[in-house]
Amino acid sequence: MDFTGKSILITGASSGIGLELSKKLAGENCKLAILARSFDKLQNFAASYKTNSNFILPVQCDISIKKDVNDVVDNVISQFGGIDIAILNAGTGKRIIIENFSSEAGEKIFGVNFLGQIYFLQRLIPYFIKRRSGMIVGTSSLADARGFPRSGFYNSSKAAFTKLLESIRIELKAYGVKVITVRPGFVRTHMTDKNEFYMPLLMSASRAAKIIIKGIKKEKSKIQFPFPTVFGTYIVEIMPDSWFEFFAGIHLKRLKALPEDNRIEKKI
Could you tell me which residues come within 8 angstroms of residue 21 by beta carbon, excluding any fewer than 6 positions away? Predict the structure, then answer.
């Protein structure tokens, strides 16, 4: 795939993987709509990366608000004359100890990681079906494999998004619409910087973005990396529940043994 002349929408573009994807796409001679809540950051990015061969449209959007999503998609279609690729990258997470389990925490995480994606898909799917073309790229996570201690809301929200993408991929194929699932391992972002545990094979957001762009160009149905973590995740998925609970229990004990000032925030 050649991005030249394509109209691309990307969410979560102000930081992390989204920011690095935006940097790389800005050099691909395309029309790029960058979405996030931090409008100042988007404006600064557009000013820094605008060239004579691209067009960058900064758009403020809280993807957990359905009206925001509908208005933004309509605005981008109006200004660009259409959307060819939608990269649904925005995500959030917070590790919660069981003593502070709350519906508010779940609502906040699912509101972005799952419901926010549904809001975009509700608007994009009929549009792409009518055009009989288009591409949806959804950023999930290898953390969708199991319910890890203190990460239940994040794990389950990503698992829900992964399964949803898998489902619509099958149905949209008949309409010429491609669906790609992105499942990164540990990537250094403001979100993972808060993790109190060791993250094997931690990579930079720039490297992750490079892998994702390469996968999109090849039109892979799944982009998952790095391979050792992908393989490890597969083992974790197929191991008996009793084994998983045993090893996860050991991990939880190690977390509890950390000094208080190194632990997670206890409130969301």
Answer: 10, 13, 87, 89, 209, 212, 213
